[in-house]
Amino acid sequence: MDNAARHGDPSSVARQADSVLSPDPEKFGLFLVGARGAIATTILHGLEAMRAGTPPIGLVTETGMFANVRLADPARFRCSGWDVAGDVHRAASDLARTGVLPHDLVELAAALRDRFEMDLAPGVPEPEDEDLVDPQSAERLKLPPARMVDALRHDLREWLQEPRMRRGVVVYLASAERSRPLPPGWDNPEANPLDLLEVAPETISRSLLYGAAAIAEGLPYINFTSAPGASAAAMSGWAKRVGVPVFGNDGKTGETLLKTALAPMFRDRHLNVMSWEGYNMLGNRDGAALTDPIRALGKVANKDAVLHEILPNPRLHTGVRIDFVPSLHDWKTAMDYVHFEGFLGTHMSLQFTWHGSDSALAAPLVIDLARIAMLAQDRGEAGAFAPAAAFFKNPLGTREQDFHRQMAMLHSWILGG
Amino acid sequence: MDNAARHGDPSSVARQADSVLSPDPEKFGLFLVGARGAIATTILHGLEAMRAGTPPIGLVTETGMFANVRLADPARFRCSGWDVAGDVHRAASDLARTGVLPHDLVELAAALRDRFEMDLAPGVPEPEDEDLVDPQSAERLKLPPARMVDALRHDLREWLQEPRMRRGVVVYLASAERSRPLPPGWDNPEANPLDLLEVAPETISRSLLYGAAAIAEGLPYINFTSAPGASAAAMSGWAKRVGVPVFGNDGKTGETLLKTALAPMFRDRHLNVMSWEGYNMLGNRDGAALTDPIRALGKVANKDAVLHEILPNPRLHTGVRIDFVPSLHDWKTAMDYVHFEGFLGTHMSLQFTWHGSDSALAAPLVIDLARIAMLAQDRGEAGAFAPAAAFFKNPLGTREQDFHRQMAMLHSWILGG
Amino acid sequence: MDNAARHGDPSSVARQADSVLSPDPEKFGLFLVGARGAIATTILHGLEAMRAGTPPIGLVTETGMFANVRLADPARFRCSGWDVAGDVHRAASDLARTGVLPHDLVELAAALRDRFEMDLAPGVPEPEDEDLVDPQSAERLKLPPARMVDALRHDLREWLQEPRMRRGVVVYLASAERSRPLPPGWDNPEANPLDLLEVAPETISRSLLYGAAAIAEGLPYINFTSAPGASAAAMSGWAKRVGVPVFGNDGKTGETLLKTALAPMFRDRHLNVMSWEGYNMLGNRDGAALTDPIRALGKVANKDAVLHEILPNPRLHTGVRIDFVPSLHDWKTAMDYVHFEGFLGTHMSLQFTWHGSDSALAAPLVIDLARIAMLAQDRGEAGAFAPAAAFFKNPLGTREQDFHRQMAMLHSWILGG
Amino acid sequence: MDNAARHGDPSSVARQADSVLSPDPEKFGLFLVGARGAIATTILHGLEAMRAGTPPIGLVTETGMFANVRLADPARFRCSGWDVAGDVHRAASDLARTGVLPHDLVELAAALRDRFEMDLAPGVPEPEDEDLVDPQSAERLKLPPARMVDALRHDLREWLQEPRMRRGVVVYLASAERSRPLPPGWDNPEANPLDLLEVAPETISRSLLYGAAAIAEGLPYINFTSAPGASAAAMSGWAKRVGVPVFGNDGKTGETLLKTALAPMFRDRHLNVMSWEGYNMLGNRDGAALTDPIRALGKVANKDAVLHEILPNPRLHTGVRIDFVPSLHDWKTAMDYVHFEGFLGTHMSLQFTWHGSDSALAAPLVIDLARIAMLAQDRGEAGAFAPAAAFFKNPLGTREQDFHRQMAMLHSWILGG
User: Where in chain A is the domain with CATH 3.30.360.10?
Assistant: First the structure.
């Protein structure tokens, strides 16, 4: 695949799409946890739109930085995955009504959604959600954790049997999980996660089960949600030993992206940020989930920590609020107030309002990460993959939170390949 | 002077101040054009405050990046310069009332201001301002340009005769100049500016006259205003030949700083900025000057160009307005609206409001540049000095406008010294 | 028609729609100047949507204030009018893509648009636009003004011959006109406008021609654009004598509405507003027209004057900018900065950002005004109609600009009927 | 006192000040609970500044509405009151450093503060604060409630013995109280509060004790804090019987003022507000107190309720957050996001940022209320005084929350006097 001079050439993906018709094109499985959610639905439709010639706006892997790298062609991605409830037709029409997916696209993709639905597997719900999930997923709740992992691995093997589908990645896109302590042994980098599953089903994060299944099948695992999936020491240690790269945590799509792009300016200009207060409003399923303080815990901590890592002021005051505002649907509006001190202690301020579609911001990053993950695997990377730090609120393998330095890390890795 | 671990150690300047009492301390001349203006007044008082222990917030040269570099001690800076009108006592009390300078500091520095006033020289006004300037400056207006430069050189030599004052820098801080075409010959890098002064006095920018005087006296020249001073090919070419570094143009203090810190994020995330509209309001002398469209021309062009350099969209729509709002005094409020396209063409927006004191933002950068200029001269740098690009809207010697890459350039230069 | 308890009963219009099927329902002509523009297109579709049960959000005449008044049923409105160019199908699909009109509605209304198109008459363009208009409208440009008015009157009589269409109103919705001085005699309240048409065609505002035609045919005239149509003394004087009410000028839909709703709070709290700067961005045909400073003149003056009328500070600084930002399409984003002084001269600020669809804000007000105009005519009102001041930036017959007092005026008039 | 044409005549108060020198001027006691707090300190200094000629910006009673009413002259106000801790000199210098009080004024008023301090009485603390209060106030904590009221009445009688001090008002300005249920009997309008004090000291709100003392001494009581002081049925009933007017609750100074000034515009234009989210940041003692959720309860409820009273949408989503951001000191920054639906369900938004000094906004309203309270008493008003609703978040005697209608109520009362 020729990436050269791709930037500014919106037809590049369209041209690649022609090759789909060529004999024996390789396919890549994109196995999504939360497959009927807004992000997954946007990915499914977005890949289809790009096959039809829509320019790949939002894909980092379609900028000049990747011009000389051979990446998997998104036109050959095949989506499948798991979910515990929902209806992808309804998700799509909700996103069209909200202005995220074009109406025409949603109409044209009805058959694609039918095929996608048929291919999905039941998910592994959290026990607290038992009453909210579909019967097949409820069935999986009765299994002990080791059997859950077996079922997920079975699903993956089924999907990978499709002709010419030789590889893929697993992406965890479920809503923010309830915060749970790591079960015993999971903090040991020498342990094998498959030996750590003899625990009560309600004590273990689902992200660990999906991650274990992915790695056991040799597939890179991308933990895009606020969940421990890829960061447990046992998981990343094992991934490193068996040669599978893992990515995470918690996709950096909106307000936190802005924080990590702006805070370096204050640091570099020696302006003393005294307070940085961030107010997030969103109205989608993810927003509803975060009204549960136990679920919000990890996400708020991730959003909050980045500033303390970048800015030197030990007395920096930060606040993060996430409020569920149903009328916003998929639109996340963040209002931040930054109060800082300049020369001679003069008080100044910066205030910003970010108004973005959560799913339209996240979906292309997931496609990027899937492409990078397969490239990383080709290059022999294994375990926690630090060069993708720019994509995450709480990156694995590095404490660097400055977005621009993270991009420089990614650039170095690409050049060094 | 020990810069190690300076960052986070606000007492470092205070400690250095003790050494002022030591025998035979070297002094550094800070020769300011526009010496009774708000920025110069803030510099004068800020240096005094730092001598008394105020932490050096806002000084880039007091961050960790400069920890292992030997820089001139601000405690040993001695301010002087030129102005065509005004009263530094009034400037100081205006800045105190506006909340830029602390009241106590202004009261304590009355004697310092008296000494400063006594030392000032009349400036070289623009002919259009003849009726607004003091009699001594009006006198200088009658001279032909070559004699103006002689007078300025004479002033510099006077100031440099002060005991132990062996060196200094000239900083152009006057209000935005009226836009004038370069006089003949000034675009020739081989020419000697001193040979190009046989022109009508109303056809030549004052910044060229001050620059010629500075370089002729071997002093680095920092063009902090929107003016051609340091960028005329004849000036930078001559400076290179005679071994003097020159810096400019147009200090990057507020809204433009933010633009160049934020635009890279959109570029790197492949988000397509469609429109970026910037509205600037300010109420000081600089703001009043910019109500003259001929003066505003250069400044607006500088503020506007940065985005087109960073962002790839050839159809990017940008707007820059600068409005004089007297009630704001020294406070510059900028409101920017960024309209961008994400995945599948979804429209999103970022809006920000920046509320900062123009003078408190500019003053520490001038001190930084003076220190860097002397370091550069020590290291043998000459002509247009590109590594200081991060300080300017329209940097010399480079087209790089990405603030983070500019900071990386500066860092490389420091390490490479 | 029963308006009681309408507020909070979104089905009321739907119920009225049933009566359309009843024998012999009266019809009301809504004769729109600029019939293919965004506002007219939104009105056309909005009336259809309300017939199908969409709640009448945005209609002032559907609030409790009008509960006991007999108003024309919008379900019986029949749209027609004039335009000089354009295509209503394209206007509708543009508004759908921009998120103003629902996609389904635009699809369902194709036949309605076809009928509407067939019924339209060519408009009377401004001479400057000769090359931009359709051939039939260009033809009308060749007529002397008196013949233009005859042609427009002929169109009105044609439309009114439709069975059971006994009355109607004319609404001027064209883009902001180029500013022209009033031709001789038009400032005389005793004159008859039909006697004042012997002028060169390029010297007279089109809004005067449409207004003269409307009044000559006994139809109320609503001047919703920034144009002199209803305010020329000859026009309102004549309207008064012949018993026709006229309404205007310049619909108050967004930023100016907010200004007149907020400024009274500052006045009533005795907070001294020093500066009020308003920045408007919009991307539709109206926005493009306003890039012509001659067209923008009146609109900017109207937007600016309201504050000086409400706020007592004689040194109040105000600014109004209107910028054409194409990517915004029909969305008008206004950012205002209010700088005010409180107790002991303390400086404080209010800043707001308004993001609204120009057409979705204007369309229901036009329907309101049409209903109120017919009610006023029934009640014997004639000439400049002051009680509708709340709908206009530059209201006729009153200097009151306080939105809340304007609403109280309207309320009094309704009760007094 | 001549109020005519006062508006726009900033010297009016200064002129009145001359009369202070006249023989036998009457004095008015302003007895403040929380006398060393930021609001009280601002009142103390503000009255002094107005005596010296500072224009009465922010005083509603100095607008044209009161032109023909005889009000107490602020130049004759004499401040005294209670507090449980603090130091008025420190409060003043804090307010100067923060930009609320002018430096000169604070310097000039040192002797005034000394006299004020000498006159203050110990306050009645909440038991939870025992360790934070001064010894004299701690002493009062040991008294049973009935004795506390006796002590407060004794203080009032002392202050009123000053020559020519014949009357006064009591204003409750303490920080938001901890929420406590009303003790038995206080909900009975027929009861006498002095008979309801046989309760455990930790079960009764301090605002009830101060209120009982004020009314028992025949002084109007203004409950400016979020506390039950004036709204308990026993209190207002008794006040009515004994001929004393009472005012409250919870001064409407900033974000809530804006809400009640803006929401009527949405209602009147039939725009359907779906969500209104308000984020408040402040850094003063009041802000610190509100980090205690038990204290914040009442305030948040008051700020939230106003919208539901004005806007008709039964599914309106509202949110109110109050965050303590120490770097803001006395400056309250509120960021509100209003999401609303227009014609055909189009989603639009209004966002605002209010940046105001809490004390500079509150202080003039307290002076206004004191003047109005004495006027009301002169006119024979007694019990809950509804015409002052515009000053309060949770007004007594009316459910009207529309600021403009509240102002109309006040206007009517003034005219009717």
Answer: 255-357
Do the Cβ atoms of D105 and D48 come closer than 8 Å?
yes
Give Cβ neighbours of residue A185 (< 8 Å, ≥ 6 apart). A191, A195, A196, A234
Collapse the DSSP code of C95 into the 3-class scheme (helix H, G, I; strand E, B; otherwise coil) and give the result.
Answer: helix
C-alpha to C-alpha distance for D290 and D278, rounded to whole angstroms: 16
Name the average pLDDT for chain A.
Answer: 91
Report H helices in C311-402: 358-378
Strand pairing category for C331-341 and C272-282: antiparallel
A139 vs A125, A130, A151, A178, D337, CA distance in Å? Answer: 10, 10, 11, 21, 43
Structure tokens that stand for D76 in this block: 């004759």
CB contact under 8 A, D337 and A277: no
In angstroms, the CA B117 to CA B149 distance is 22
Rounded to a whole number of angstroms, the distance from the CA of D315 to the nearest CA of chain C is 12
Instruction: Determine contact, residues A256/A389, Cβ cutoff 8 Å.
Output: no
Per-residue DSSP letter, A134: -
Q: Domain D255-357 - what CATH class?
A: alpha beta
Helix (H/G/I), strand (E/B), else coil: B37: coil
| Residue of chain A with shortest Cα separation from C101 | A97
Fold adopted by C255-358: Dihydrodipicolinate Reductase; domain 2 (3.30.360)
Ranges for all domains in chain A classified under CATH 3.40.50.720: 12-251+360-415
Supply the pLDDT for residue C22.
52
User: What's the CA gap between A39 and D257, in Å, rounded?
Assistant: 40
Provide φ and ψ at B254, rounded to 5°: -135, -100
Could B281 and C337 be called an inter-chain contact, meaning their C-beta atoms sit closer than 8 Å?
yes
Q: How many CB atoms lie within 10 A of CB D354?
A: 22
Identify the CA nearest to A305 among candidates A403, A394, A180. Answer: A394
DSSP state string for B79-110: EEEEESS--HHHHHHHHHHTTSS-HHHHHHTH
Q: Subunits with at least 3 CB pairs below 8 A relative to chain A?
A: B, C, D
**Residue given tokens 């505003």 in the structure block:** B296
- The residues with which A347 forms a beta bridge, in sequence order, are A341
pLDDT value at residue C2:
37
List pLDDT tens digits, range A322-375: 999 999 999 999 999 999 999 999 999 999 999 999 999 999 999 999 999 999
- Dist CA C44 CA C35 (whole Å): 9
| Cross-strand bridge partners of residue B335 | B279, B353
| Contacting D residues, span 317-336, partner chain A, CB-CB under 8 Å | 317, 319, 321, 323, 325-328, 333, 335
- With CB atoms and an 8 Å threshold, state whether C317 touches B333: no
C349 touches chain A (CB under 8 A): no
Q: Residue D351's closest chain B neighbor by CA?
A: B351
Among B387, B395, B390, smallest CA distance to B413 is for: B387
What class is the D12-251+360-416 domain? alpha beta
Considering the domain B12-251+360-415 in this protein, what is its CATH number? 3.40.50.720
**Residues from chain A contacting residue B58 (CB–CB below 8 Å):** 269-271, 342-343
**Chain C neighbors of D56, CB-CB under 8 A:** 270
Residue D8 has a pLDDT of 36
D378 touches chain C (CB under 8 A): no
pTM for this prediction: 0.93
Q: What is the ipTM of this complex?
A: 0.93
Q: What is the mean pLDDT of residues D168-188?
A: 91
In three-state secondary structure terms, D298 is helix
- State whether residue A251 is helix, strand or coil: strand
Does B23 score more than 70 pLDDT?
no
Round to whole Å and give the CA distance between D10 and D19. 17
Tell me the C-alpha distance between C320 and D140, whole Å. 59
Q: Which residues of B touch A46 (CB under 8 A)?
A: 343-344
